[in-house]
Amino acid sequence: MKKLIVSMLAGGFSLAAVHAWAADAVTLQLKWVPQAQFAGYFVAKDKGFYDEENLDVTIKPGGPDIAPEQVIAGGGADVIVTWMAAGLAARDKGVPLVNIAQPFARGGLQIACPADGPIKTPQDFKGHTIGVWFFGNEYPFFAFLNKLGLSAEGGPDGVTVLKQSFDVQPLVQKQADCIHVMTYNEYGQLLDAGFKPEDLTVFNYSEMGEDMLEDGLYALEDNLKDPAFQDKMVRFVRASMKGWQYAVENPDEAAEIVVDNGGDGEEHQKYMMGEIAKLIGDGKLDEAAYNRTAKMVLDQKIISKEPANAWTHDITDKAL
Description:
The protein is α/β, with parallel strands linked by helices. Helix content is 42%, strand content 18%. The chain has a 6-stranded mixed beta sheet with strand order 2-1-3-10-4-11, with helices on both faces. The protein has a 3-stranded antiparallel beta sheet with strand order 8-5-9. It has a two-stranded parallel ribbon with strand order 6-7. Strand 6 (129-132), helix 7 and strand 7 form a beta-alpha-beta unit.
C-alpha cells in the first residue's frame, strides 16, 4: 500500500486525493436526531480522528420513524447506535446484532412525577398513567413493571401506559401522572418548563439498580466474520472513543460541534453534554451489566430465549 501511495503521488495525485481513494467507508446510523447524545461521533469526524484511522465515516441521523435495527438489517448502515434491550429483541427476531462497544457505561433513563402528585414510590404506579416512549425505549419500563408485579393493561390493579411524545408535554398538560425523561435531555426540558428539582419526584433506573444498558455500538454478526470488516470496526471504535474522550474533556466545544451538525439549541446541547459526560465509560462492555439487561428482557418475555453470542470484546480489546 505504501509503495502504491508513493507511486500515485509521483504520478501527480494530491495527498488529499490519495487519502480519499484509500479511506474505508463506514456508515453509522444514530438512534435519534443529532444531539449531544452522539457527540463523540460528531467530534471524531470534526477533529479528524476518523481520518487518522483512514476512515470515511457517514453519520446518518435517526428520528421518530427510524429504527436503527431495521436500517442495518436492510443494508443501510455498517454499525448502529441502539439500546441493548432493542438490540437483543432484534436479535431474537432474526437480525443478528452484536454489541461491539459500549460507550455509555451508565444509563440516563428516569421517571419523573410531580412531587405533589399521588406517586411517592414505584408501588404507587398502580392505577395510574405513566408515559413512556416506544421504538424499543419501552423495554426497561415494562421489565420494571414486571418486577413490581404490575401489568401494563390499565385498570385499578395495573398501569395505563401512555405512548409518550419525545417531549415533556404529557406531564405539563397533566395527561400522565409521570413521564419518562433522560437525565441529559427531557429532565432539563422540565426545568425549562418551570419545574424546580424540589417540584419533582424522580426514579432513576440506575440508582434503583433497574437500568438496562443504553447507547452501544452494534454490527451484524456475519459481517464481523470478515477480517477486513472487523479491522475497520476496530479503527472505528478507537476513533469514536477518542472522540468521546475529547467531548467529555471539552464539553462546550463538543456541544458547538453538535450544533454545527444539526443539533438544536447551543445552550441545551451544552446542558446535555454536561450530563452525558457523567455516563461515558471506556467503551468496553461490562459483562455484569449485560447479564442484568439480558435477564430483565428475558424475564419480561421481550425475548423468547436466552441470547447467545450477542456481544464481543474482540473489537474493544484491539481498539482500546
